[in-house]
Amino acid sequence: PNRYSTRYNLGYTLEQLQDNAGAKEQLQKAIELDPTEPESRFELAKVLRKLGETDAAQQQLVLYQKQLKDISDHSIAAQKSTQAAEAVRTGDKQKAVALYREAIAALPDNAGLIYQLALVLNDLNDLEGERTALEQAVKIDPAFAPAQYQLGNLDSRDGDTGGAEQMFRQAIKASPGYVQAWIALAATLAMESRIPDALQAVDSALKIAPDNSEALELRKNLAAGQALR
Fold first, then answer.
1. What is the C-alpha to C-alpha distance for residues 19 and 66, in angstroms, rounded to an integer?
2. What is the pTM of this model?
3. I need a surface site. Which of 76, 159, 167, 171 has the fewest CB within 10 A?
4. Per-residue pLDDT of the chain (229 residues; tens, 9 = 90+)
5. What 3 state SS string does the chain have?
6. Which residues have CB under 8 Å from 25's CB, separation 6+?
């Protein structure tokens, strides 16, 4: 009783037998079980029209058409992103950018695709384009820690340690186990001469990854710097 295909096939069969009321009930249950399958909405629209429920039938058709478009958009985006990844692998970064943009045009709210574009733009040293893409990804997904971390790196490169600190902290808030974000935060705090805070941040990284060589080296340097004060 809780299998989508059973309900859909029963509804379709009842429709063929001209039992439109029974078909309506089964198709509605099929939609409840799996709202993402478009064919049940199409068949339900046909049944509703036969029952004289034209407004409800039109609503189902609108949803059916939207779902078909969503499926098509996801298929296009998947194809283009796969081609883009292959272009990156073969070293054709400009082609990868164009393909990622085509994928994003199909799925403009997919933060992951936009982040992948940002990484390729970074490889091409298009830092302005990278920042725009990263900011767009974070706007779509405010808890996208890798994008926040990369924005922090861009701020640090621009000499904006305050902005970098803020982005690294946001990345850590979104993903408390993000070791690289803790290390980057510690390094940023050290640049601001906030050694105790930097030591606290690097110790947080070492609690997560005790053998991390970068964190161990940074802690050694921070401790030495504090001893000279």
1. 28
2. 0.80
3. 159
4. 999 999 999 999 999 999 999 999 999 999 999 999 999 999 999 999 999 999 999 999 999 999 999 999 999 999 999 999 999 999 999 999 999 999 999 999 999 999 999 999 999 999 999 999 999 999 999 999 999 999 999 999 999 999 999 999 999 999 999 999 999 999 999 999 899 999 999 999 999 999 999 999 999 998 887 654 5
5. CCCHHHHHHHHHHHHHCCCHHHHHHHHHHHHHHCCCCHHHHHHHHHHHHHCCCHHHHHHHHHHHHHHHHHHHHHHHHHHHHHHHHHHHHCCCHHHHHHHHHHHHHHCCCCHHHHHHHHHHHHHCCCHHHHHHHHHHHHHHCCCCHHHHHHHHHHHHHCCCHHHHHHHHHHHHHHCCCCHHHHHHHHHHHHHCCCHHHHHHHHHHHHHHCCCCHHHHHHHHHHHHHHHCC
6. 11
pLDDT for the residue 9: 97
Residue 224, pLDDT score: 81
Provide the token pair at 74. Answer: 């996801």
The residue whose two tokens read 């082609």 is 95
Contacts of residue 179, Cβ cutoff 8 Å, sequence gap at least 6: 205, 208, 209, 212, 215
What's the token pair of residue 127?
A: 């830092």
Rounded distance between C-alpha atoms, residue 223 and residue 19, angstroms: 80
